[in-house]
Amino acid sequence: GAMHPAVLKKFDGVVWNNVSGDVLTLSQRKAFRAFVENGGGFVGIHGSAGDPVYFWDWYPDSLIGARFVGHPNEPQFQDAQIVLEKTPSGIGSGLGNGWVMNDEWYSFAKSARLNGAQVVATLNEDTYKPGINRFGDTPLVMGSDHPIAWTRCVGKGRSFYSAIGHRPETYSDERHLKLLEQAIAWTANSASSSCKPKA
Questions:
Q1: Helix/strand/coil (H, E, C) string of 56-84?
Q2: Which of the residues 56, 99, 109, 121 has the least number of beta carbons within 10 Å of its own beta carbon?
């Protein structure tokens, strides 16, 4: 019910925490897309980009900016090194160069960077075993550029996606929480956003 123009206009941003599947009607899709493209913010967390099949191309290709292909299964949860990059958005500032965390690590068909994203964090694939896609036999190795958190400008709006966040424990990690707080603040603040059109 919140995905209606009259309701969405009351908010600066929308957060989807592990929302997956075909969850919006056609009119809700239209309202949500208009909200973002006209200046609204979006934060997607983990499973919000973890579907092997999509029913709405705008969502993975424009809003998220990458298509999920799988995650490790043997074991599903592993320690891996998160490497932070400096970005115009400032997301990740104060968190050093990164940290090691245990989670379910997503791989994507290609780097979101190739689709115009400003990468906030990547995974060091040398620190865990990506394995093979359980939806086929494709290796989940992305190589030296394996983004797991990034920002995108979508029309006049701002999108942030992070693949971190399957395990409940990740929401007790102060570094992860700070990353999300910074992302929410960035997506909801159109006035100071690096997506703001240049005069």
A1: CCHHHHHHHCCCEEECCCCCCCEEEEEEE
A2: 109
The pTM for the full model equals 0.94
- pLDDT tens-digit map of 148-195: 999 999 999 999 999 999 999 999 999 999 999 999 999 998 766 677
pLDDT at 37 over 50: yes
CA distances from 65 to 55, 113, 140 (A): 15, 8, 18
pLDDT tens string 78-107 = 999 999 999 989 999 999 999 999 999 999
Q: How many residues does the chain have?
A: 199
Quote the distance between the C-alpha of residue 119 and its chain's center.
Answer: 10
With 50 as the cut, is the pLDDT of residue 199 above it? no
Residue 45, φ and ψ in degrees, nearest 5: -120, 130
Query: Which residues, at least 6 apart from 149, have a Cβ–Cβ distance to it below 8 Å?
Result: 91, 92, 119, 120, 121, 160, 161, 162, 163, 164, 179, 183
